[in-house]
Amino acid sequence: MEYYEKALEIAKERGYKHQETRGYLALAEAYRLNNQIQKAMECYEKALEIAKERGYKHEETRAYLELGDAYKWNDQIQKGIEYYEKVLEITKQTGYEHEETCAYLGLGKAYKLNNQIEQGMEYCEKAFEIAKERGYKHEETCAYLELGEAYKFNNQIQKGMEYYEKALELAKERGYKHKETCAYLGLGKAYKLNNQIQRGIEYCEKAYEIAKGRGYKHEETCAYLELGEAYKLNNKIQKAMEYYEKALEIAEERGYKNEETRAYLELGEAYKLNNQIKTGVEYYEKALEIAEERGYKYEEIRGYLGLGEAYRLNNQIQKGMEYYEKALEIIKKKGYKHEETRAYLELGEAFKLNNQIQKGMVYYEKALVIAKERGYQHEEIRAYLHLGETYKLNNQIQKGMEYYEKALEIAKERGYKHQETRGYLALAEAYRLNNQIQKAMECYEKALEIAKERGYKHEETRAYLELGDAYKWNDQIQKGMEYYEKALVIAKERGYKHGETRAYLKLGEAYKLNNQIQKAMGYYEKAMEIAKERRYKLQETRAYLELGEAYKLNHQIQKGIEYCEKALEIAKERGHKLQETRAYLELGDAYKLNNQIQKGMECYEKALEIAKERGYKHEEIRAYLYLGEAYKLNNQIQKGIEYCEKALEIAKERGYKLQEIRAYLELGDAYKLNNQIQKGMEHCEKALEIAKELGFTLQETRAYLELGDAYKLNNQIQKGMECYEKALEIAKERGYKHEETRAYLKLDLNPVDENYDTNSIKISDTSDGAQLQDEIADRVKQTDIENKTITDDRIALAEQLLILGHSYQTEGRSEEAIKSYEEAVQIANETDHNDIKAKAYQHLGNVFTGISEYKKAIEYYQKARKISLDLEGDEMEIIAYQWLGYNHLQAGQYQESIEFYNEVVRLATQLGCKTRKVNASIGLGSAFSYIGDFASSEKYFLKAITVAKQLKHRCLEKLAHTNLGQYKSCKFDAAIKSYLKAEEISLDIADRKEEANACLMLGHAFRQLKKHEKAIKSYKKALSINKEMMNNEMQGVCFEKAVEGIINEWCGYCCFIAGQRQEGMTFYESAKDIAKKVGDKYQEYRTNQAVGNILCNIDNYEKSKEYYQEALTIAVELGDRHCEGTSCFNLATVCRKDCDYKMAIEWYEKALYIVRTEVNDDILKEKVLTGLGIAWFNLGDTKKAIEKIQEAQTLAKDSDT
């Protein structure tokens, strides 16, 4: 550049205009190569000015060409086109064919960049034609490269590759190293697009080699970017990132802003794929900043689309949509039809995830229209696949299948093997949902075949996982496991962490179904480990839910609850509404099993609320069914029936056959319990009909069992036996051991006598969770029975009696369960087999806990512990001690309560049940407070708060704070802090009932501190929440009606003290209305008195008398002479104030008679005498006035002494 500057200086000084023009052109090129485009353009403009002025046509042409290129690089495509057009004008006059060729090439590139591919190709063809004819080998090479690029953009990859090959051949032959590098890069890109990643890498590496050797920094940067993309496609994200970083380093150093932008975009994509969404967002934003500043519209679009996807993956759907919309706005202005298609597809996906299925479909349809019109076959396939999925989600399975078929048809016709694989996988899923398992398996197999043949490892993994599911649903658990293992091998080998997590979850489920709970837990833990490490929040939530269910099945209910709560916490934090709904359902189930029916119902209600709001129909049905079952267990059969009917209605409307069967069975059971046997039979028969028609053998077995019960209750014993026989036949054939046991028991056949296989009991429900634990009694560990060859018949019989006991327990036949366990103890005594004896005692403890005979339960637990000191604790034992602690606390036997709670702490520590430990600490805190040991009480409450915080168990933390507030003796300020914390937590966990309770306690505390304004605010909030919940009939209420009345009464009192008399009366009136409804005469009396007092204070004497009179009437009804005397006194006072002294004296006399003869209340008597004295004085009878006043004074002196 220095030399060009010197040449230019001399030319300008000497007036050599031609040399000056050439100097500007040379200097401009140097600036361009140094990436100083703006400076280069200034030099070209100066050269153009002189050339035009002096008529230097050749230099004018060259200046136009270079300016066209500069504007093109600066993303001012239209201006670039204008300059190329000017070149063509000159060449037509001058016959400069070389420049004409260059102009055509420039126009070809410009139109291609402007997304006018067809027009771009036409200009490139013209350039090629002239170059070929005139022997311009360099331009011919350039034309081949541009045509290759154009065909690639036009989705004609094979044709594009042919042109790149021709360019490569010519470049190598002529030694055009720069063009050889470009040809290798083009071929690398093309092979990548053709899914031949390895071949693509080889070509990119060749390009990199030449670029590095020749110092082509721009091409080296491009090679790094292309290699990064290739490794990304090959799932080697870390390696891809290394290449992107290298590209970024050169681009930043050399000022290649376009490549810098692209490097940031690619790094954003890589971090996003690596589940580092936040970092990905940062890179996208950097790319966007440059793109906006430099006017790189294409890169700006990519940045917006990338950010949209990142926010969508981060579950910030709304924010993601905003970015898609921004991208779409630019796209439409620029006419980038390909990107418009992609934006519509992404928006469709966002609306679908936001559960706005219909809106999502609209966008997919828009994408499809453009794709079909423009011939974007890849996008057309994607649109069909997405539309298929939306119809599937909308339960229009058949229509969904039609779209999948269309996608598959194009993919097969065009040879798009990757999309063909995806089409088969999607179609298979549709067949599966349509219960056409065999057809689904055929599609999965086809997908697997192509994936293996083409090396699509990701799709091969998915096909194995889906085939595993299919075999599992077909009750071929073992075969399903084999496929899961194959998927796992590939996922681990290829580093597909997401696929590996899925494989572990599915293997866990398979082992769980095979009743290998411990092994299942191991797989869930592995899935959890990866999910946490990789921040796969969705999979982490699922792992917690699955572990929660596994612990439930393993009879560790408390631990199961803890895992479900962790899942719920993540789901709420991340806004994963579907997972939140499922977590509430699982949590509800756990509470139900823990015999906390009310708490379980609250969880089901929350699940129902979200499911209805978000349109999760499957979960809505489950919530209705679970609520129906809970109401049945709570003996509210009619309500249970109503919920099951709602579930049935949705299931029939949506075509969910499995849920329809379950709803019919639940209704059948409910009608039986309601003594409507015939109706119960009808529902069971409907369930049976669907199950047989669709081949659901497990549901068929259950339907026969339920139908058998109905016939038996209807006294059609023979018919019932036939049903049980059919159930037994299917259960034995299919290996449904739980149902087989039930059938034996129904037929009054002892499964022990039928050589019952003790080593093959398995959970057989593959659809709606384990039904093995329908009642709290079902806590016995079947798997406790050792897996060994039984040699001693007596020991074998004892072990079989343990199983029989469990089976009876499951049936709710506690007496027969006890008998079986006692027989097992007897045999264990005879054979001196202490292990069986200890287990039998433990199981007896569980039975007695289940029927709330806690003392007897503990006797058995202690016997078991005495025999086997190493016997593993059972959560049921903890429950027994916990209930005894609670019952003794309620009965005022505080020392015994403390002993039982201490035992809970000991056992919970052994079993690692931290939640029960917290509950026990709260119980201990309460017990110590009752015996006046406030220091110990506070210590236990604070310990409970600390552990609850560690567990992130907000409910228990809130409970501990509430109790701490209650037992702060008279330290009301400290109590308020505890209640405020309880209120804050209740608000965080959206527990409106507890929030209301905290507000109520705050109201009481503020009232005690005489902070009446604050008390009113708290009471009002409590009432407001109660009203809000009452308006939502599904949520219930916070307070019983009587309590609501008392809160209104306290509000009235605080308002009165605070001088808010009108509002005080309103609250008292509300309390009075409630008192009438609930029949609380005393409250009705008090509210009338209170309103009378307020009216009297504001001089509304007539109205005041009415209320006092009403209070008096109620006092007489109650026969409460003290209340009657008080009312007479109040009436006397208001008459005196109203100057009606005669009437006042009458009422005072009545009051005085009552307090002298029937009520021992000196204070009231003193008030009456004083009032009477004042009344006589006002009537002018000073003698009587003095007499009454002196009597009052004497009474007051006597009271003081």
Automatic annotation (TrEMBL):
SMART domains: TPR
Listed GO biological process terms: establishment of mitotic spindle orientation
InterPro entries, sorted: GPSM, TPR-like_helical_dom_sf, TPR_rpt
UniProt key word Ligase: no
Compartments reported by the entry: Cytoplasm
Main localization category: cytoplasm
UniProt xrefs under PROSITE patterns: TPR, TPR_REGION
Domain of life: Eukaryota
Pfam families recorded: TPR_1, TPR_12, TPR_8
Cellular component terms (Gene Ontology): cell cortex
Record key words, sorted: Cytoplasm, Repeat
UniProt GO MF annotations: G-protein alpha-subunit binding; GDP-dissociation inhibitor activity
Signal sequence segment: none
Keyword Zinc-finger applies: no
Name the UniProt record assigns to this protein: Tetratricopeptide repeat 28-like
